Amino acid sequence: MDKDSSSALPSGNDFSSAPAHPRMPLRAIAADVLRHALPLVSLYAFNGSIEGYLLLTAFDLSLGLMLIVGTTRERKDPTMVDPRSRWLVSRVASVLVLAILLAILSAIITLPIAAPALIFGLADGVDWWSMMSHRGFWIPVAGMSILAAIRAQRAFEATTTPGLARPPTRKAPVIGDLERDRKQSLAAKAAQVTLIATFVGLCYVLITFGRWGLYALPIIYAALLVFYDIRPDLAQRLFPKLWQEE
5: which residues sit within 8 A by CB, 6+ positions away? Predict the structure, then answer.
């Protein structure tokens, strides 16, 4: 078996000699921007409600958390895959299956994340069931799930090598740096948890004060989500202890 590239890492917690955070591909950035923009499109362009925007944003946060967990590589993960997995039909099928799985898992996680919005909304007499039964709510959900699935599929393809027509194996060399990827994942997870905590305050302000700050706060929050997706390395400085966790 080939030696992991992580063996060349500096010892201890000294990462000064390690390579800098890799620049994200433009397609990945575009997918993140579109995913975070869909709740805004629903709110501003299709006469959506504040409550619908908050639920969609909670779902978006859940998708982000699932992407971090699902794309964090382990040493046992395959490095070589069947070349037929790169066929267009295989990629499309994979994205559709991933979108369904991500949507189901994220919907479960959305419940506790959206709990503040649900509680504040019930106190104000919001009809949640009527809002969620509208197709204008489910179309952004489907779009965000597909965009997240595309990101997950691209992350898988970027770290695997097409080889022989057989089940995935660890025959190929490891692409990238497993240990650094793990620590960057911890940093991104810390940032995501902080964004979820910030979401509680957003729920209170938007539901309690109605249209106060309506046209500013959702846009600012979406920009914050994009920023942390594009530059997760900044979480290393914001949460150094968690980033260095073994």
Answer: 173, 174, 175, 176, 177, 178
- Give the integer Cα–Cα distance in Å for 242 and 178: 17
- 152 lies in some domain: yes
Is residue 181 included in any domain, yes or no? yes
Residue 176 CB coordination number (10 Å): 14
Asked if residue 164 belongs to a domain, the reply is yes
Report pLDDT digits (tens) over 28-79.
788 888 999 999 888 887 767 788 888 999 999 999 999 988 888 888 888 8
> Residue 140 class from Cβ within 10 Å (0-12 exposed, 13-18 middle, 19+ buried)?
buried
Q: Which domain holds residue 70?
A: 23-243
This prediction has a pTM of 0.81
Report yes or no on 108 lying in a domain: yes
Domain total of the chain: 1
